[in-house]
TrEMBL record:
Domain Transposase Tc1-like: 71-122
Protein name, per record: Transposase Tc1-like domain-containing protein
Biased composition (Polar residues): 124-143
One of the protein's GO biological processes: DNA transposition
Disordered: annotated span: 104-150
Matching SUPFAM superfamilies: Homeodomain-like
Cited InterPro entries: Homeodomain-like_sf, Transposase_Tc1-like
Length: 150
């Protein structure tokens, strides 16, 4: 469990303050209820720069700015059935090179949901061609009340 800011300053007071008790690291760790390693860490941080606040986490910076994130969300809201690849292509035309997976992540972060469509959209011309093609090659046999296709 991380130490609170007041506990960190208490460690410094108990060890380094002129009018303080000048306790050992082990005694401080028992008094505060933490590991001696944590006491050494916070004392070292204090001696480096006299700052005990939380440091910012380092890591890879975001690929998109807030403005670009807003553009992605607006494009998705404007057009109902647009894919992440389409949004990526629209942004590439504007000079912003973003991967479709990044677009999906930004849409999820903004509260939207992304997933593949539940059904393939029907294209009338393709289905009508397929059914006429099937109808012309099949022959019908009359067997009672049923029609069988071969």
């Amino acid at each position: 469990m991380p130490l609170s800011l007041s506990q960190r300053y208490e460690i410094v007071f108990l060890k380094l303050y002129l009018l303080g008790p000048k306790m050992s690291n082990k005694a401080i760790s028992k008094y505060i209820g933490c590991e001696p390693k944590a006491v050494r860490y916070w004392l070292g941080r204090w001696q480096e720069n006299e700052d005990l606040s939380n440091l910012r986490k380092t890591g890879r910076p975001r690929a998109t700015s807030k403005k670009t994130d807003l553009k992605i969300v607006n494009i998705a809201k404007r057009e109902q059935n647009i894919t992440s690849s389409d949004i990526s292509n629209v942004l590439k035309k504007e000079g912003v090179n973003i991967d479709p997976s990044t677009v999906r992540r930004r849409l999820r972060e903004s509260g939207g949901t992304y997933g593949p469509p539940l059904k393939k959209p029907l294209t009338y011309r393709q289905t009508s061609r397929a059914t006429t093609h099937l109808g012309s090659t099949t022959s019908t046999l009359q067997l009672g009340q049923r029609d069988l296709y071969r």
